Amino acid sequence: MGSPKMMLPYKGMTIIEKVVENVLISDVEKAVIVLGANKKEIMEVIGKYPVMHCYNDNYKQGMQSSVKCGFAFLPPDFRAAMVFLGDQPMAETSVMNLVIEAHYKSGKGIVIPVCNGKRGHPILINNKYKEEILSLDEPDGLRGLLRKHPDDLLEIETENESILKDIDTQEDYFCEINKTHQTWKK
Hints:
By secondary structure, the protein is of the alpha/beta class. It has 7 helices and 9 strands. Strands 5, 6, 7, 8 and 9 form a 5-stranded mixed beta sheet that branches. It is globular. It starts with 8 loop residues before the first strand and ends with a helix.
């Protein structure tokens, strides 16, 4: 990206602030932010929010290391955790709430939103998988967990394409910003 993407402007705040705001207005009970690169700058902007945080010393190893760090930080009695992407500010609370509701109604241990046959984020994972996640050594991360437990997995269909999109490149960012500005103009 050429600069810390979590700190890029998005709808009058930074990308990470928008993600945190979306999570906090959803039905999620508590939020933990897993910090890695640029932790000081990120803490300066998220410090005003009622969230906990932990630091992933191994953040350069990728998302799987951040997922492990987050699960290791959770208290032993948590019921389930949702894995959000820090670079997905367009994620909508309606989808988050849909995933949470589906978990409670179905009793399934893993709930994932799907749009047009593609799995997206956020993923909800029951506490019973904590130790398995902490010991994951899969090259494809959580996908390995999903493959191991197809009977405890529920895919929730949504028409909301935001579950499939994140901001990885400057092009992604500018496309999202331009789309946002076009939406505001209508």
